[in-house]
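Page 42, continued from yesterday. The earlier attempt failed because a stray header line got pasted into the input along with the sequence. Redoing it now with the clean sequence only.
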Amino acid sequence: MRIQQIPVLLLTAFLACFAAVGVARAETLKEVMAKADAYYAAGNYEEALKAYHLVYQNSRSPRAMAKLKKCEEQIRMNQHKTVDLGAELSRILIPEVSFKNADLGTVLEYLRVKTEELSGGKVKANFVYNGPREDLKDKTVNFSLRSTPVTQILSYIGSQTGIRFTFEPYAVVGAPASEGSGSNQPATPTSGLGRTLSEIKIAEVTLKEADLDTALEFLRQKTAEAMNGSQSFNIIYSGPPEDLKSKIVNFPFKLSNIPAAVLLDYVGRQTDVIFRYESFAVVGRPMEKEMLTSEPGADNPGEEKADSSFPIPPPFKFDQ
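This time it went through. C-alpha cells are written below.
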C-alpha cells in the first residue's frame, strides 16, 4: 500500500511545482506587458514594440498583437514626420553660458552637447557649417548669458561672426551671411532609390576634412550597414576626376540619426555638387554643369566620367 502511494505523492509534488512555474511565468509576462504599456505611453515605440512582441510570442495575447500593430504604425508615422527643430530649440533654455574669445567650432560643439543634455537626450541638434573651414577656428564669440533659449544664443553668435543660421528638419545649417545658407539641392526624393535613402537613417556621422571620394564611400558603406548588409547603392561622379580628391567635406560635429539622402545633400552643398537619383545609381555632377543641363539626370555625350562606381559591397575600413 505504501509502495502505491509513492507515485501518487511524486505526481502531486510535480503538479504543484508545475503550477508554481506557471504562476511565475504569468507574473513575468504581466510585468513585461506593464513595461510595454509604459514605453508606449512615453512615446518610446521601438522599446514598446520589442516588449509587446515578447509577450505575444509567449502568450498569443490579442491585446499584445493589437498594440504591436499600433507601435508599427507610430514608428512609420514618425519616420515621415517633419521635425520643427527651431521650435524645439527655442524651448530649451541654457541656465548660464559664458564665452571669452571662444572659436566658432568650440561654441557650436558646446551647444550640441548642452542641448542633448538639457533635453534628456530627446533633442539632438546637429550642426552643419557650409563656409570656409578656417572660420571654425578664426571666428570667435564673446558673451555671457543667463536663462537664454538656444535659438537666441545662435542669433547672438551669428551677429558676432557674420553667420546666418537656418533650422532644417535634421540640422542647424550655418553659412556666411553674405552667401546665405539656402541650398541648391534637388527636390526631396519621393520614389525609387531616393525614397529608400530618405528612409535609411545613419546613427552617427563624423567626417573631418575628408575628400569627396572618401565621404561618398563612407556614406555608401554606412547605408549598407544600416540595411544589415542586405542592400547598398552605386555612386557615379560625372565630373573631373581630380574633384574626388580636391573637394573636401567637413562635418567636425557629430551628426546623429541623419537620413542618408539628407547627408548626401549636405555633402553636395559643401562641394558644389548636385546629386540625382537614377534607377541604379546616385549620379553627382558639378553644380555649374548641372545648371546647364536641360534634362536632369540625362547623360551628356562625350562627357568624361570619373571611375567612382562602387560594387556591392567592397571591403571598407574607416578610421575616425
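Notes: Residues 103 and 140 are 4 Å apart (CA to CA).
Reminder to self: strip header lines before submitting.
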